[in-house]
Amino acid sequence: MPKHIALKGDNDLYLSARWIQGYQYLQFASSDHGDPTVGNEVFITKDGSIRIKNNYFGKFWRRSPNWIWADSDDTTTDNLDTLFSPVKVGDNVIALRNLGNANFCKRLTIEGKPEPLA
C-alpha cells in the first residue's frame, strides 16, 4: 500500500475533506486529485491493518457510529474504529473494511448528507 493516497469513488470524484454541519466529513466531492483536501497518509500497523490520516484536517479516520470521520487524534492502534483492512479488488482498486464494525466503507447519501463516506 502506498504511503500517500487519494481515493476515487465510483462517481469519478475524489474523497475530500469537507465541513458538513460543523463536522469533519470525508466526501466524494472533488474532481481534482491535486486538491489539497484529497490527500491521505497511510500508516501500516504490526498486524497489517492500516490507519489513515487525512492531510487537510490532520486527523485520523474514525468510524462513529457508522460514518467515517476525519477527527481522531488517537495515535495508538487500540481503537478498532480507527483501523481498516485494505482488500485488493483489481488493478489500482481497493476496498476498505473498518475493523470496528467489519463493514466495507462506501459512498452513502442519507440524513441530508450528500455522499460522505460510511
Automatic annotation (TrEMBL):
SUPFAM superfamilies assigned to the protein according to its UniProt record, in alphabetical order? Agglutinin (SSF50382)
Q: What domain of life?
A: Eukaryota
- Tell me where in this chain the Agglutinin domain is found: 1-115
A Pfam family of this chain? Agglutinin
Q: Which InterPro entries match?
A: Agglutinin, Agglutinin_dom_sf, Natterin_C
Q: What is this protein called?
A: Agglutinin domain-containing protein
